[in-house]
Amino acid sequence: MFELDQLSVSFGTATALREATLTIRPGDRLGVVGESGSGKTMLGLSLMGMAPDAAQVTGRLTVDGQEMTGAGEADWQRLRARKVAMIFQEPMSALNPLRRVGDTVADPLRIHMGLSAAEADARALDLFREVGMPDPEARLRQFPHEMSGGQRQRVLIALALACDPALLIADEPTTALDANIRLRITDLLARLADQRGMALLFISHDLAAVARATTEIAVMYGGDIVERGATPAVLKDPAHPYTRGLLGARPDPAPQPRRNGKRPRLPTIPGTVPALGDLAPGCRFSGRCPVELAHCATVRPEMRDLGGRFAACHALEGGA
Amino acid sequence: MILEVRNVTRRYRLPRQALLSAPPVLVAVDNASLTLERGETLGIVGESGSGKSTLARMVMAFERPDEGNIRFDGHDLNALSTGDLRRLRPKFQMIFQDPYGSLDPRRTVGWSIAEPLRVMASTDITRRVDEALAQVGLRQQDAAKYPHEFSGGQRQRIAIARAIVTRPALLVADEAVSALDVSVQAQILNLLMDLQDELGLAMLFISHDLAVVASICDQLMVMQHGRTLESGPAQQVLAAPSHPYTKSLLTAAGA
Fold first, then answer.
1. For chain B, what is the largest distance between any 2 Cα atoms, rounded to a whole number of angstroms?
2. pLDDT at A52
């Protein structure tokens, strides 16, 4: 179990992640959505103990009761080997181009799990089968450049699963992939989490992929978690004005006929995301919010329980 | 009709795989045809390797088709002399995915926007740059700034300003909003729609994202491995896709 309690990551006066409080239990499939600069990647990196050296980290992070706040690199390495693994957007740059992918996957099995070379090779083959690699025996001997993007992403997933992590963090795992492959990798991650009882943190700006892969969702803006709850509920009936704006701005794949010769415009969120250092001390969304109140820019809204789901917004207080 | 592409094929020779065998040939675009009216948008949807960008490059006369022909405003692009093509170019312009790569970091934004006007030896350059900046929602003062001072969405506005400063009849947009966040993407799509209404632009809008294309296109063409799988009025293709590949694109877009 991963518990974040008021975890903040900042660079001088710029706060990339502000007092994130979150619990990730075995088998949870949690989606994290938000735009560039929302802090979603920083949240993922913090769970790996990989926040940049220049960052000041405050608050608490515990993993299965073990205090990881301020833990040294050796502790994090032990944790990363056995409890948490991460996959990234670009599968080509994450693989060593000079090594056969089977060897890349077998390495951590020998190093962290103490398997013999033959045992590690056999286990790598099992993993390739588990991630649905076509013709797995032959693929083990291939180099990354001989594989398609979807196959390379499967290699990385196999590598991430090698030491049976309790939590798999996937940061934009499908963004670089074509539509068909995107669906298959999304479904694969959800299936693996369920079969293994492994927690999945699925970080993406692709709301369609998050809707498919996750059961819970956290929406981030300007370093804050502004809303969280069951994925279908949040996507169907968003409570926070930012979530509403984000969902509204997403183009609809349904046909959009012209009316009186004019094409209907997309709803937009006015303005642009401010630089991290220029964010309001109160609600980060103030200045762009359509329902903003006088104190929004100065007073930070509390996370409010709206019956099984949560949103941090002053406009929801008193009656809503 | 502003653009007519007729039975266009483009092949690339790939590197030889064995010393004595003939080099394999990739058919990047296979017998593609399309027509585009003034003031309308045609969307081309496809993924990496579909041939959509190759088709765009041929429409821009950056490369020549091996077969077929492309007529822009009545001119056969591949029959024009270099000089005639250069004189026609201001009428069809292109915007790309990454505005950072297409703007010179050492030049002011105003200088970059004015570039196509200088090629045309246009007078009243300053006034037209100001006008283009206003049309894309930027301020006159922004002309003196450098690309790094702008956000990704603003840089895409600058790229659009440079494309429309010559008052083109056709705008080719290749993945022009793909690198942008959802909320910025919606702003840029709306801007393109505004400019189309204002200027009567025809647009060739190329994207891998079917939902984005659906929001902006009158006509839709779906490409895969160089072949045209289906094409027609966007509403018809989206409401009743005839090819399974189009259906899977719709599923991936969350339909």
1. 62
2. 87
CA distances from A310 to A34, A60, A299 (A): 16, 21, 18
User: Was domain B3-15+22-252 assigned CATH 3.40.50.300?
Assistant: yes
Answer yes or no: do A267 and B214 touch at CB < 8 A: no
Residue A147 CA to residue B133 CA, distance in Å, equals 45
Q: Which of residues 267-306 of A touch B (CB under 8 A)?
A: 267-269, 272-273
- Sketch the domain layout of chain B as residue ranges: 3-15+22-252
Q: Given pLDDT bands bounded at 50, 70 and 90, which one contains residue A320?
A: very low
Residues in Cβ contact with A305 at an 8 Å cutoff, skipping those fewer than 6 apart: none
Digits of tens for pLDDT over chain B (255 positions)? 999 999 999 999 888 888 888 888 899 999 999 999 999 999 999 988 899 999 999 999 999 999 999 999 999 999 999 999 999 999 999 998 776 677 888 999 999 999 989 887 778 899 999 999 999 999 999 999 999 888 888 899 999 999 999 999 999 999 998 888 888 899 999 999 999 999 999 999 999 899 999 999 999 999 999 999 999 999 999 999 999 999 988 888 876
CB A182 within 8 A of CB A89: no
**What distance in Å separates the CA atoms of residue B16 and residue A319, rounded to the nearest whole number?**
72
B239 reaches A (C-beta below 8 A): yes
B185: contact with A, CB 8 A cutoff: yes
Residues in A closer than 8 angstroms to B154, CB to CB, are 272
Q: Does the distance separating the beta carbons of B190 and A207 come in below 8 Å?
A: no
Which residue of chain B comes nearest to A274, CA vs CA?
B151
User: 3-state DSSP call for residue B201?
Assistant: coil
Residue A292's Cα: distance from chain center in Å? Answer: 28
| A219 CB within 8 Å of a chain B CB | no
Q: What is the pLDDT of residue B179?
A: 81
Q: Could you read off the pLDDT of A44-98 as tens digits, one per residue?
A: 999 998 888 889 999 999 999 889 988 888 999 888 878 999 998 777 788 899 9
The complex's ipTM works out to 0.85
Contacts across the A-B interface (CB distance below 8 Å): 99
Nearest Cα residue in chain B from A204: B181
Q: Which amino acid is at A299?
A: V
A81, A75 in Cβ contact below 8 A? no
Give A148 or A176, the one with higher predicted confidence. Answer: A148
Bridge partner residues of B76 (DSSP): B71
CA-based nearest distance B76→chain A, Å? 30
Assigned token pair, A47: 């769970």
- With pLDDT > 70 as the criterion, what percentage of chain A qualifies? 99
Residue A300 CA: distances (Å) to CA of A4, A5, A279, A303, B27: 19, 17, 12, 9, 58
